[in-house]
Amino acid sequence: SNVGTYTKAVGISDAVMGTGLASNYEFHYTEGNLVITPRPVDIKVINTTKFYGDANPTTTAIVEEAGKGTGLLNGDTLTDITTIYDSSINEKTHASTTPYDGIIRSEGGTFTGSSKENYTFNYGKGNILVRPLPITVTSDNAVKTYGSTTPITAAAKITSGSLVNGDALDSVTVTTNATETSPVGDGYTTTPSGLTLKAGGNGAASDYAVTYDSGSLKVMPRPVYLIEDNKTRIYGEENSTAVYQNSKENTNHFTVAATDQDANTGLVNGDTIAKVTTEGNLMDTSITSASNVGT
User: What are φ and ψ of residue 261, in 5° steps?
Assistant: First the structure.
């Protein structure tokens, strides 16, 4: 039966005396009314998630299962319930570690069955969790000279995913596991970290779930310029008779060029040269015993 007041629906008869005789009385019975009140029905909004920058996803609301004194009965149904997002939730809503609570409301729906007035519909609200948008940042491959200082100069770029809502990459810190004393060779890496965004965009770095991928780094040999000492000979003699001008002062017969000619040249890290081979080095073949005096 539908909701309403049913008069004289509750009967009364056959009074039984507690004390005394029923025959001493003439009983008149008046029926009472029955009031049927609406049955509560709870509507549940299904919670959902999305990534920062995404449009709001379609969500649904359902009727909770019938329980004691609640829920739809007798084949009655409520379908096509409308769900509506609060206007504060959109593509620019920031990512959060906790859901935005009660931000999706429910209303309406198509009722079929007995009568909608038989129910009191309690429309619930749902939550949405906005997750950081995944992107991958990869540092470029690089080279450095043995002995050069770190950090290195290397760039990094987004290699998977993209920034949204007018956000723009400002900077990424790139470091390397190679040091000033790392030997020449491969096997070193460049490692990006610490992404920052330019001012003026909508988002923050926390709106992105950044995966950092490393690049490779190669340590290259450091140029060292060795200058042989000067030699002298007498005019008319063969070149083989030439002797070093400063043989008494420098038995190694060479000098290392000053490193201030180039910041990435010269010996570093306490490295030294014990000796070089100078004997038997060919001279300029255009110089002969007949060549004139001069330098």
Answer: -70, -30
Cis peptide bond N-terminal to 221, omega within 30: no
What is the three-class DSSP state of 142?
strand
Sorted by sequence, the CB contacts under 8 Å of residue 286 that are 6+ apart come out as none
What gap in Å lies between CA 93 and CA 100, rounded to an integer? Answer: 10
Number of residues written out for the chain? 295
Pairing state between β 48-51 and 125-131: parallel
The amino acid sitting at 36 is I
Q: What is the pTM of this model?
A: 0.75
List pLDDT tens digits, range 1-24.
899 999 888 888 999 999 999 899
pLDDT in tens, 27-58: 999 999 999 999 999 999 999 999 999 999 99
With H, G, I as helix, E, B as strand and everything else as coil, classify residue 185: strand
